[in-house]
Amino acid sequence: MPLFGKGSGNWLTSAAGRRLLPEGWLSGPMPWVIAIMMFLMALTTAAGLALGFTAEGLRADIASQISIQVVDANKGRRDADAGRIVAAVRRLPGIASVRRIDDREMAELLQPWLGAGFADSDLPVPALIDATFAPGAETRLPAVAATVRAITPRARIDAHAQWLAPLARLIGSLRWLAGVLVLLMAAAAAFTVVLAARAALDTHRTTIEVMHHLGSTDGQIAQLFQRRIATDALFGSLLGLLLASLVILALGDRIGKVGSDLLGSVELPATGWIILGLLPIAGTLLAMVAARASIRLALRQRL
Question: Are 132 and 172 part of one and the same domain?
């Protein structure tokens, strides 16, 4: 009976060929090592993706917003200037919305720092105006600033994007770090496969010599090991991804219960889950390539 079925170029071998090399998902430590590496890789990938999507969401939501403060101890003049600013900015092109924060909202915002009784005091509080640019109109900021300063020199404009810039740089650095870690873990998984392939080759040295005498080529022998290692790698990858998914869902539930708008925006959308679902396939393909290359190189060195 031939060792390889018809069309031996496929990495799946015949039943007779599979019996030559005993195999099983629990046959060695490699599936569990792959599972651990995939678990860490999936968590790191999810963190990098979540940070990326969060940064894009923050940039879209915050970069188009500005705050205008009118700082004046004279309450009447402050309110009059704030009213003129709201009317003038609303007429500018590229402005989607303008809203003044009323005194009650200001009291609620400042209460954690100044206490509940400060609203009845004579402490001057600036007038706060929120303005939002229409999509693509963020370049109109200089025109808004000129309009506001023409009304009163006591106004100050804060672009939310400038406060977001350090956070965006931090998120970018963390994304690069996550990418490097994923590559390092993929390299570690590939080295694990190489070591497992070399160990299996040494274990079945006698069988391989007999197969060589019967006319089997190095490529055909490499297919036997490639199938076994690919099966173990697929099992370990799926197990690692399953455990990582449970952790990601649990963390997402905990983050959602915190109630923070910033933390609440750290989530993994459907696109991120699709990318995570491709990791076991990529891991199995990497294991197949590493196993085949390692076995063929080792066989050539022994000839």
Answer: no
- Sheet with 95-101: list strands edge to edge: 95-101, 127-133, 65-70, 155-159
Q: What is the pLDDT of residue 115?
A: 66
Residues in the chain with pLDDT < 50?
1-14, 16-17, 20, 22, 24-25
Instruction: Let me know: does 17 contact 32? Beta carbons within 8 Å.
Output: no
The Cα–Cα gap between 301 and 91 comes to 79
Residues 260 and 124 placed together within one structural domain of the fold: no
The answer to whether residues 142 and 237 belong to one domain is: no
pLDDT digits (tens, 9 = 90+) for 235-287: 899 999 999 999 988 887 777 666 555 555 556 778 888 999 999 999 999 98
Domain identity same for 92 and 205: no
Q: At what angle do helices 270-302 and 160-203 cross, to 10 degrees?
A: 30
The pLDDT value recorded for residue 7 is: 42
Structural domains counted in the chain: 2
Task: Look at residue 12 in the predicted model and tell me its pLDDT.
Answer: 39
Parent domain of 148: 72-153
Domain end marker among 104, 122, 153: 153
How many Cβ atoms are within 10 Å of 207's Cβ, its own excluded? 13
Q: Which residue among 125, 153, 181 closes a domain? A: 153
Q: Are residues 181 and 50 in the same domain?
A: yes
Classify 281 as helix, strand or coil: helix
Q: What is the pLDDT of residue 39?
A: 94
pLDDT at 181: 93
The encoded tokens of residue 29 equal 């430590």
Please name the residue that has the structure tokens 């009650």. Answer: 104
**For residue 39, how many other CB atoms are within 10 A of its CB?**
21
Residues 55 and 138 in one domain: no
